[in-house]
Amino acid sequence: MTLRLLLLTSALIVAGCGTAADTSPDTVQAQTAVSQGMVTAANPYAVEAGADILRAGGSAVDAAVAVQAVLGLVEPQSSGLGGGAFMVLHDPKTDKTWTYDGRETAPAAATSALFLDESGQPLRYFDGIASGRSTGVPGAVAMLGMAHADYGKLDWSETFNPAIALAEDGFVVSPRMADLVARMGRFVLPRDDNARAYFFVDGDPERPIPAGFKRDNPAYADTLRAIAADPRALLTGPIAQAIIDKTREAPLPGTLTLDDMANYQPIKKPALCSTYRNHRLCSAPPPSSGGVGVQAILGMLEPFDMARVGPGVEGWHYFIEASQLAYADRDRYVGDPAFVTVPIDTMLDKGYLAGRSGLIKPMAALANYPAGNLGVAGTDATAEVPGTSHFTIVDADGLIVSMTTTVEAPFGSQRMVRGFMLNNELTDFSFRPTDDAGNPIANRVQPGKRPRSSMAPHIVFGPNGDFAFATGSPGGNAILAYTAKSIVGMIDWNLSAQDAINLPNVIARNGTVRMEARDLPEEDTDEVQRAGPAQEFGMQSDIIEGLESMGHDIVRSRGEISGLHIIHRLPDGTLDGGADPRREGIVIRVDNADAP
Ligand code: GLU
């Protein structure tokens, strides 16, 4: 039996039935309380750790710290201590929904030439990634520290125990981690001494660690112990210095300083919320473009009867057109609001969205998809690649956490320090500061700025204000499309969490449409099986052909590696969850009775 099956079996065993509804005044008022907890994330070890914390009486935030600490160990290609994150949290006691922004920050000495060569031309994209310049001040851990100070029930230090034990005893390397080590191992990853020793058998770059390999990481355990003693241990003292030293190495050394690290502050702010039909959607505001982008797609879909047309040619046509138009706005106008004015109110204004939606023709693709006229901003030139992880947690008190977390590219900047990878988040800035017409690009590099993100963790409330579901995904700029698909699937098409996740992924941006396709040309078959389950979940050929006949420029995709992890509150108050089969995750439900 594989590790995944083993863990899945144990997950099913622990799944329990709900207890009678809690009738204490707080929970009745909030209307979000459930008698169960649930954790869903991209790796079974991480989900088990989160569930153990819930069983020990921890809150959803306590569980989030444990999940993140384990993900940084068992899924280092996606997120970790050296990265950043956005958490959206709903507090049932106050009925308030917050965002914790743990986005990385550019050094004070960063200039608009950060990713330009000596002649002022943009660096080759991967050269920018695999450099000392791409690392921003890591924010995920400090952000979790802030959320824990607000909502932790267990001691901060206790939440690290599962990850410390796993780092010391060793974990079984998953197929996805092994695949990415092998793929990235062909490029720059083995050039870093620490990464070579860790990810390759006997440090031999020809021998990437295979799936099933038992890997321990004592350096990671030591780092976690330091963080367990002080949530800001990464930002001051010897670990901060080690991070800085690593970014100062060639090629393309960066400029991070101890001041940059010590000055870092996570930001707590109200979530960005808007309505879709009779639901309320809440996500992270800028510098992420994810919340505004997803909500703009849905806002443009509102005039169409998506429930009636269903997931057929007409429904996907509207989804494609709304995506194209929303991406055009998001590409142009979103940057760090501490540095640029983001016309967020207009971008989500119902009248504005109705106007954009009015451009959509019933049965024909538009010839082009210009951004709306919301003021001068340069045409975006930001590249984005997929890495990242999303997890969702609800505890028995009804506290809800939806968190997307990232080191940006697979294995971040390809440099390892003290058992964890450094992020390359600063390549989420536009390499070019201005467009061809000389207009400054909203997402250009500036000192102390946070790069634009696509991360879109969402919490969705139903008609009575009750918690309905929480969703989110990794996937670079495709995050907007993956997340919007899941929301349409659940609200309009009345699907279960798992069925909404399984819908084909459709990414419509810049005039083309990437679409998971069930039938691919013969020669692509091997590739399909390596890249993902597109054959199982892909769009049927007749729908693709129908869309092509409307003029859509469709690229049949071998698999889009979304990582949607959804928790859904059913009408009886019990929880149902879904984990994306395109990754390695599971769902565990924790009966409240398990808590002491
Ligand atoms: N770095 C990207 C962002 O913040 C996420 C990359 C990914 O999802 O893989 O939007």
TrEMBL record:
<feature type="region of interest" description="Disordered">
    <location>
        <begin position="433"/>
        <end position="453"/>
    </location>
</feature>
<keyword id="KW-0808">Transferase</keyword>
<keyword id="KW-0732">Signal</keyword>
<dbReference type="InterPro" id="IPR043137">
    <property type="entry name" value="GGT_ssub_C"/>
</dbReference>
<comment type="similarity">
    <text>Belongs to the gamma-glutamyltransferase family.</text>
</comment>
<dbReference type="InterPro" id="IPR051792">
    <property type="entry name" value="GGT_bact"/>
</dbReference>
<dbReference type="InterPro" id="IPR043138">
    <property type="entry name" value="GGT_lsub"/>
</dbReference>
<feature type="signal peptide">
    <location>
        <begin position="1"/>
        <end position="20"/>
    </location>
</feature>
<protein>
    <submittedName>
        <fullName>Gamma-glutamyltransferase</fullName>
    </submittedName>
</protein>
<keyword id="KW-0865">Zymogen</keyword>
<dbReference type="InterPro" id="IPR029055">
    <property type="entry name" value="Ntn_hydrolases_N"/>
</dbReference>
<keyword id="KW-0378">Hydrolase</keyword>
<dbReference type="Pfam" id="PF01019">
    <property type="entry name" value="G_glu_transpept"/>
</dbReference>
